[in-house]
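User:
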Amino acid sequence: MPQVKIIAKNFMDMVASLPAMKLDRLYANAFICEAILRSLPPLAKKYVLQLLFIDGPITAKSMEEWVLADGASKHKVAIDRLLQLRVFTETVDRKKETTYRLNPVFQSNLQKLLIQGEALPREPMPPNIVNLPSLEDLEAFALEQWECFLLQLINSSQADRPSNISSSVMKVFQRGLLTQRDKEAPRLTESGFQFLLMDTNAQLWYIIREYISNSEERGVDPSDLISFLLELSFHVTGEAYNINSLTDLQRNTIKDLADLGLLKLQQGRKERWFIPTKLAANLSMSLTDSSTRKQGFVVVETNFRMYAYSTSKLHVEILRLFSRIEYQLPNLIVAAITKESLYNAFENGITGEQIISFLQQNSHPRVAERVPSIPENVTDQIRLWESDLNRVEMTTSYHYDEFPSRDVFEAACDFAREWNGLLWEDSKKMRLVVKAEIHMNMREYLRSSK
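Assistant: Predicted structure:
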């Protein structure tokens, strides 16, 4: 069975991974500093605010005295996070005493924010110039764009209209989620199948992370891209902003983001503008934020039949990944979870836990409050069918035989046990099998014992 698992990190993990020079340059933007402050653990926020108007360094020992003994682990997590993000800089003197101080650029921008108050990255356009869509229409647009995007990933023939996804965004899929052989249509990889079962927030983070990771190939500095994307999260959802106020890099970026449904582009007689959707506002929030989760639509019965109350083509294709679609009505999809449909899902790299998690997250409101929301006999059977494929576990190993004496054989077995690498032994014929990780150590041991 494939053991592939894709992870969707949030922005702050990406910021922490930047080189120190780029990170310091990023903090020249006041909105980045505010976004970083929002993302910090509670204790780390407290430390930043306590040191905000202190110009000199403070010793690590002094800071340890700020917390009770049972808060030592939280203190360590907070300090580690502040150092990763270079919000704190660490210095060790000749006496080996550690001191911390706030990053001066970060400190200066945060001071201005508290003293002068928050300002918008750019002013919205007057409502008399633009024809703004309602928030409901904007949310419907974002959902439609996102579904069209995912349908294009599954099968371009399923989309309502020809794909207008830009090549820079499609490269994201070519890297991790799609594979293509010569003269063959692109097909989903194991990671691609798993991606489709992730919730919308996690999918968005994955796409944005890969979009940033590939930016240098397009001649774009990742720190500039991160800066603009975080800045976008401070724009007001549903307000219009003039495209003329953007740089060339930012204009190219918003075209890609519009394909994903993060923004809506509109054209007037003289002006062009963009309108952020809720998806754009979520960029600086945590992956665990539940405010953007959609209402569920799936009811699973004890007889393994599923009823999905939806008109979405995307939902049909996602359910088809692990179930058999029996029939469709205008607003209802009826499917069945079968052994064959699940085996097909497992072969494509989808795990039983991912299927169960998807069904739980998308449970219809009528059953979502039940505990459990999915019948236990269904979840247990999914796990059992998956375990049928995992009865044999493959382990890379090495086989040893033809030992010169029983003493050498027994000593070799003892050595392998000490290294926790003995997989099998046959005392009668003096044969043994060890894990590949200890092969070199075993070989050196046998040579030295001759």
